[in-house]
Amino acid sequence: MTKKVLPMKYPPITSWTWHANLLSILSNYEETLPWIYNNYIQLWSDTHGLFFDFWPKSNIIFDCPWLYNQTLKRETIAGMSTNLSQFFVDAIDLDNYIYGIFDESCIAGSLVHQKKISPHELFIFGYNLEEQMFDVADFTFTGKYSYTKASFEQVEQAYLNIDAPKDYLEEGRGGLHLLSFFNKASYHFDTSLVAETLNDYLLSKNTSERFRMMDNPRDFVFGMKVYEDIKHYLDLLLQNKDKYDIKPLHVLWDHKVMMLKRIQYMKSRKLMNNADIIYNNYKQIVQNMLMFRNMLLKAQLTRNSELIKKIIIGLDDIVSKERCVVEMMLDNLIFTTIPPRVHYTRRTGTIRV
After folding, report:
1. Most exposed: 45, 150, 162, 352, by fewest CB within 10 Å?
2. What is the pTM of this model?
């Protein structure tokens, strides 16, 4: 075989590589939709580093039931007799996607090419032996999540340039992950879980406490309170106390896109009353969030502080409208389990088991 490219479909989330890579795989398979739409509801932020993401966070790519995940330590890879490029080719021949931390300053076409060492997540999903090129995915080639090609030599050097202290994959464990689609998984859409997580989002509950059997709860900001952190960040921009970063608003836009897709999914399966009204109301939120994200891009180019002020005011309006729509969703969910495991009571703002 002289070339092979594993299935990739452009993902609905493009703010972080771990979500984009995972959804690039899963979006090829309709049977994964119940799992996708049971996730990507809750948001969190680290107020110290102004870091925003979905919850579950980057570990979601390793916990997904639809993936077979083989983790190889760097020491294991270093002890292999075959050269690195051949190992990648062999792995792809066995239907494995390759995910790890690489020095992308080594890769031509990268925005950081030939600059200082730049550790970043790289996703390898194909090869061409005649061209000696790998098919790779990341943000650093166009500034947006994109698929491109990189030479065997450059990818190999990019991997070797990262030593253990710089390899932050999976919270510092490092190494490489070989990911392949696991078609024997079974996962059913859980309306009760949607209700629980929507309630967490609405009331800004610490969802990490639900996962404390695997990890200690995190002292993060959760749910709709993340808007306050983002407004604080925008205020720092107004004071010239922080640098421009589109990521926070891009995460918010990704979140609204996924919420809209989830509403459409539940509508198509008759799991929500008044779905058309809810969908149309949320669609307006998606459009407004995209407008504010683009407005921040324009503010970055023009240094127009008035645009940032408009975004801050606009976020307050989105918070108000989204709160109403999420409450409407919770009031109209149809539970398929008998009896329902949970019931949302809007009057008290609680979920009763």
Report:
1. 352
2. 0.91
